[in-house]
Amino acid sequence: MDANDERIEVTILGSGTSAGVPMIGCDCAVCTSPDPRDKRSRPSVFVRAGNVRILVDTSPELRMQCLEHGINAVDAVLFTHDHADHILGFDDLRRFNWTTGRPVPCYGTRETLDGLRRMFAYAFDSAADSPHTRPNADLRAITSEPFAVQGETIIPIPLMHGPLPVLGFRFGNFAYCTDCSHIPEDSRRRLENLDALVLDAVRRKPHATHFNLDQAIKVARDVGARQTYFTHIAHVLGHAETNAELPPGIALAYDGLRFTTTGMEAFG
User: Fold this and answer.
1) How far apart are CA 62 and CA 199, in angstroms?
2) 266 pLDDT exceeds 70?
3) Are 48 and 61 in contact (CB under 8 A)?
4) CA 253 to chain centroid
5) In the chain, N or C: fewer CB atoms in 10 Å?
């Protein structure tokens, strides 16, 4: 089977911005909305490619996300970058050490892995006799070159998050590109012939480090995936009203959205 034809199953674990939705102390229409799709935890996604289970980023709500969606084990974690809303659930990886009996392979750029070491220094302390429980992570540096996890090829997508280089990832005919304000031309070519794209779209107003809604719509049309879902969504975009104005083939993601790129069936 060609890699682009392989069945990819995706669960959106979190679709919100760094503050989450609802935000602390906010009583706007979206933060107080009864629509469960307006409840957005911090951004993360779970991908099953063949028999390989891959988590992208460890959001602050990782424990609750895994409980909600029955994620009991992962074969690898990919990190897009080391901002707090993408890594603060790192300590919860120790549960996967217990359920699988092995270290968790964690992939990211050297800069991202250095950020993890700084933030979670206790996890990488060389003191073998420490009585404290800590995550056991096997950090593996990657570049923009494709790499494999248990035989499944993953293609990094270099992106710009304002002035910060970050990574998106392509799995077969699905790509995940959160936290970006610019996609270099070489990376655009890595997004050709997609069934599904998950793309950053933070709000209506321009933003220094994220695509706004109009920019994201333009990028989605240029990429031309069969279906694009927007993520990293702020509290100014209500789910139902925003979806009503989006073009065909483009919609807001929401926590718990699940789809497969075989037939592009959405469920959950």
Assistant:
1) 20
2) no
3) no
4) 11
5) N
Task: With residue 196 as reference, give the H or E element that holds it.
Answer: strand 196-200
For residue 83 the two structure tokens come to: 């901002």
User: Cα 159–156–135 angle (5° rounding)?
Assistant: 105
Domains of the chain: 3-258 (3.60.15.10)
Rounded to an integer, the average pLDDT of 17-45 is 98
User: DSSP states of 28-54 as a string?
Assistant: STTTT-S-GGG-B-S-EEEEEETTEEE
d(CA 209, CA 161): 5
Which residues contact residue 168 at a Cβ distance below 8 angstroms, ignoring those fewer than 6 apart?
80, 156, 157, 158, 159, 175, 176, 177, 178, 180, 187
DSSP structure string for 154-193 = EEEEEEEETTEEEEEEEETTEEEE-S-SB--HHHHHTTTT
Reported pTM = 0.94
- Report the number of secondary-structure helices (H) and strands (E) in the chain: 7, 15
Q: What was the pLDDT predicted at 125?
A: 81
Q: Kindly report, residue by residue over 74-84, the tens digit of the pLDDT.
A: 999 999 999 99
Amino acid at the residue 105: P
Share of the chain above pLDDT 70, in %: 94
